[in-house]
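Mods, move this if it's the wrong board.
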Amino acid sequence: MKRNLVILWAVWFTLLYGFQWLVTTRLQLKQPDEAVVWSANETLPSSNDGKIYLLEPFMNRQVAWDSEYYVGIAVGGYDDPEAGYVRNPATGLPIAKNYSFFPLYPYLMSAVAFPLRIFGLSAIGTATLAGSIITLLGTLAGLFAIWDLTQGLFDEDSAWRAVFYMLVFPSAFFFAQIYTEGLFVGLAFSALMLTKRKQWVWASILGFLAAWTRAHGAAMALPLLLAWIINTDWKSNLRSQLTWKWFLQGLLAFLPLIGYFIWRTSPLGKGWEELQAFYFGRGLMTIESSLQSWKDAYFYARYVSQEGLIYFGVEVFTILLGLICSIWLIRRDPIVALFSLAVVVLSVFSGSAQSMARYMLIAPSIFITLGYWGKNKVVDKAWTLISILLMGMSVLLFSYDMWVG
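Not the wrong board. Structure tokens:
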């Protein structure tokens, strides 16, 4: 199983990187793109002028949008002047845009880049190579976890379908780009797998690290707490179960939340909060601003832009898929389903109606449920065809910095 899974993963990212090279070498897209209200000004041929972290020729097709900040932090740190500064209208003080991104991924990039300097690449090229290695290995770990979770719940055939569907999901190309999705699923999905195996310490540690990778990592506390509750026999003599191991498991369940609040109260977290308030517009359960953003998105897609109609159509489709799959899985695997539901809710009410197709990548219930549903040949063929077509379109747009991710 392990060998075949590694071969599948290697063939997948080789074909993906080859496709990115092929389409950008052979095709030219019409610019700008009007997928969202602001993208027309950001998808012009000159839009990346001066953005040194997006102009490095080496592996240039694997960097776009937020990749600039991850590479920039890895090379120049959070206060790197090349990242660009914005002025807080409330204080009048400038703040580097790098502070809006979590630290684990770029710090790992910096560490892995150190031995890679032997290849003689530029600092930016070396960091990009390091980021690609990290995200690909994280994806591989996530695939192993999804296979294990699905096989333990259903059967081996369903597990292989779940892995395949994960690799061809419409936005699955992010698992091989300079983004945090690959690292996050490696940590979070592995933590869920270890939780099911009752390896509480390692599961909590991985959850802690996931909380330093992206905000959704804090939600890892939910499945850990649920597992603690489920594994306690509340009907028998509780006194006999109140051991130090029982208390330790309960405390460990809060480790992802502890990690999140350590970061949130640090200078990095405070910088993130400041930038989200007036620049990037994301936040934790910002319901009012989220609803307004979704209303604006509907108006834009319905009356202004055909590109927007397609873009937001994919966004809503993936949200509904994540919600349906998570609800269906609740009775069969409440631990995984609870985390997936948290991902859906936190994403939808994050303050901005975009990037949902990317955020749904970290909801494991989608792949596990589809893996089981794929027993039906019609479902299997239909989902495979839809996924590959949408993924091909998405990869093409991302390779030209036109995917609004």
